[in-house]
Amino acid sequence: MKILVANPNTSTGVTDRLVASGKLVASAGTELIPMTAPRGVPYIATRAEAAIGSTVMLEMLAEKRGTFDAAVCAAFGDPGLGGARELFDFPIVGMAVMATLAGRAAAKYPLVRSVARVMRNVTMMVVGPVIGLISVVLFPFIGLATLFWLAGRAVMARNKD
Question: How far is CA 81 from CA 86, 127, 158, in A?
Fold first, then answer.
């Protein structure tokens, strides 16, 4: 299986770290194809930068289309993910989606539940994704493992049809 790791910002170092971490958890026979935005911003932090990143993400996916089985939108906030799912017929997952799922999974643990009880006015729907995002930052190995697992599941589900 070939998975495109598409980073819609211009930080090649970030792309390299994501791919290196992904290789640690990827299944045998999985090829991770790195791609960093050729233009844009080094770090996406504002809505305007996310809009630029979205456009670049769609261009990157179109450029590499047909050379991979699934793609990962490798940037915080998943710029371009919705548009990509609308335009392309290959599976694509994003880091924010993965972080949300990781946060929901983390909610099973007592420490997370204790934090949620202390923060009575904050629902688990907010706490879960926040903890998921924190876990991706603090424990990228686990976060990337989940991300690549999701990409693999998407390819397998698509191949069943």
Answer: 9, 23, 18
Specify whether the CB–CB gap between 50 and 79 falls below 8 A.
yes
CA dihedral 92, 95, 99, 105 (to 10 degrees): 30
Q: Measured on CA atoms in the order 131, 134, 138, 143, is the torsion positive or negative?
A: positive
Domain range annotation of the chain: 2-95+140-160
Above 50 in pLDDT, residue 125? Answer: no
- The label of the residue with tokens 């946060």 reads 103
CATH topology of domain 2-95+140-160: Rossmann fold (3.40.50)
Tell me the CA distances in angstroms from 97 to 22, 28, 60, 63, 145, one per residue in order.
Answer: 17, 24, 20, 24, 13
Contact (Cβ atoms closer than 8 angstroms) between residue 91 and residue 70: yes
| CA dist., res. 40 & res. 26, Å (int) | 29
Q: Which of 96, 145, 105 is nearest to 124 (CA)?
A: 105
Strands of the 92-94 sheet, one edge to the other: 31-36, 2-7, 70-73, 92-94
Of 37, 4, 39, nearest to 19 by C-alpha is 4
Band of pLDDT at residue 119, cut at 50, 70 and 90: low
- At residue 42, the 3 state secondary structure works out as coil
